[in-house]
Write a structure and sequence with these properties.
The protein is about 40% helix and about 20% strand. With about 170 residues, the protein is α+β, with helices and mostly antiparallel strands. The protein has 2 domains: about 1-35, no CATH class; about 35-130, no CATH class. The protein has a 5-stranded antiparallel β-sheet with strand order 1-2-3-4-5. Strand 2 and strand 3 form a beta hairpin. The longest helix is centred in the first third of the chain and has 20 residues, at about 5-20. The radius of gyration is 26 Å and the shape is elongated.
Length: about 170
Amino acid sequence: MQKSEFIAKIKTLAKKVYAEKSNPEKDPADIEISPFPVLDQFPPLKGVMDDLFDFQYEPFVKDIQWVAPRPTTFRIKLVNEADFYLIYKGKEEDKGLFTAQVSGKNYYLESLPEEQQASEAIARLLKYDYGKVKQTETADLGDEFEDSTLETLPPEPAVPDSVEDL
């Protein structure tokens, strides 16, 4: 069994155990394992994710993490190692007010044009493969310079020896 397969299996089992412990009245066979348990704990977040991703967020989202209690902040980790934040600002009628922070820019999701801009910014994040960028940053650059030979030139004198040298 590969390491990645092992980790995926452990995550699946952990989610199942968590679902059983959080709702002990249900029969374990009837419990549907949600890929993102945070959405079960915070239902308004599911509606926001559906709006931003047009009901298709599961193939593009790797994980959803609750990172701060006040203001309630969620980190959405995308499949390409990029991430953005959703910040819960409170309630208005039956809909929660959220702010999306994508690439350092805030989008207030109660406004339809800003929600569309946030969706476009997320789409731009998904276009890039951040996994490759991180690998290049962490690559050892010292190996490049070991093979190259630099010629050492003698230092030039600061003051000429004679007038003819000028």
